[in-house]
## 1
Amino acid sequence: MPSFSRSDPELRAAPADAVDPELLALPAPPQGRRLLSMVSMLAVVIAAIALLLHLRPDVAYSFQNDRAADVGSATAADLSELETNSYVRVRGTPMLSRMVRFERALSGQQYAVFPLAGQRQIFVQVPLEALQDPARAAQGEFSGRLLTFGQLGGRFRAVREYLGRAMGMPVTAESFVVLAEEPPSAYGWAVALSVLCLAIIGLAGFLLLRWFRPIPAEVPAAVSR
């Protein structure tokens, strides 16, 4: 490996602030590729932040106690005292004649949604396989996450429309749904996914800071060997 020292004629002749013509002759970095990389990184950060905000209720629910709050009978429940995004237990007779079946697009798992007899404001969602087990179907007691149709968003819009149109049971955004067999411990995936989003945001932010960090203008002196 060649070595250089301060005694070399070229180094003595060149001033400290001299510009190397060979460096000037090098092609400039492609601006389009750099801009595309920056835009892609910002898009990933924005997507991670949006997903993190979307997961906030799931993460909050995952940290709740696995002991369900007893709502009692659906016909006697005080709707004004029901706290959404909580783990509850409710009793009632399933009205399977008003049942709606649907399938989740990502998992492919099938579910059934039905009201409990004697009222029209508390519904229950159970895995369809639970209705094929006589012991689980006839228990008359359901424990799970309490939400409203409005909180469930677009994925339950078709269920709401079908209940109102075909079943004659108009459902509002304030109507309640108990997602049976979904205790807080079942939402550990939300915590793991949130940690992954935070890691992605942190890594992208670190890379962006390094990208825009100014390059030191001071050139170190040559070291003789």
Note: Residues 62 and 185 are 6 Å apart (CA to CA).
## 2
Amino acid sequence: MSEVTGGHGGPVGPVGAVEERLAELGLEVPEVVPPVAVYVPAVRSGDHVFTSGQLPMRSGSLVATGKVGGDVTPEVAAECARQCALNAIAAVRAEVGDLTLVRRVVKVVCFVASVPDFTGQPGVANGASELLGAAFGDAGVHARSAVGVPVLPLDAPVEVELVVEVAAEPGAA
């Protein structure tokens, strides 16, 4: 396992065991979810990978549909956020080839399609944040935005995107 360095300059923990940590939770990194429009699941720019928004797809179907605070409970929405984060991890792995290259999760943006009076978006986003913490340890601690929106693609209740820092590409200056 490799040690990673956080923004404070010190080690934040090993990340070589990401997939093993997920397995302990009964999870595995899925195959990358195919895009639903004209874009790619993730793009690397220098030492960062930016994922496209990931929907809560599992085995080719949305985990749930509808608005949080209406048809979808906050608990189901948090599970959706967790699945979105797992799908984002898959997009990162597909882009860099190996999750041991992830130095830290930098930023998470969680969009929550919710009824107008629902204000629990941060609790929903915790589903993603808690998974990233469990998977990456201290390297999974991140900045985050949780944003309520009126609608998301395919009537998904949640969409999550990540920015992660990765080890420099071999041969990069």
Note: The helical segments are 18-24, 74-96, 121-136.
## 3
Amino acid sequence: MAISAPSSVGSNGVLASRYGELKSEDFVKLIFTELRNQDPFKPNDSAELLKQIDSIRSIQTNMELGDRLNRVVESSQMGSASNLLGHFVKGLTIDYLPAAGKVIGIQQTLDGPLLELQDGQFIPLSMVQSIKAPGGAPDGS
């Protein structure tokens, strides 16, 4: 069983691969399968095998670090959104329609926090265009 390198690059520059699906147990099975199926008269180079192990571990570590960073960003976004409770905001809804109102709730989604307005509309945090402090009267525009 040969290990092939990823063959394409995604739109964000990240290698399009299935390394993210590879768990430690799967990796050990893969290595033992490769060792079991190798030609005894042409054994695999141990140094090359160690390089492959190191590469996969490095990829796994980078992916874990990326996951941790994503969780930090999500937590920061949620904190920022919660600071807007009671504030008057203007922005665009997820359908790109203008909306304005007092923030009464926050919902976390895969795309980030949504601010729930008094009238039931939702504005993604990333689409907020202006913010007024609690008690600040909306200017009507």
Note: The mean pLDDT is 80.
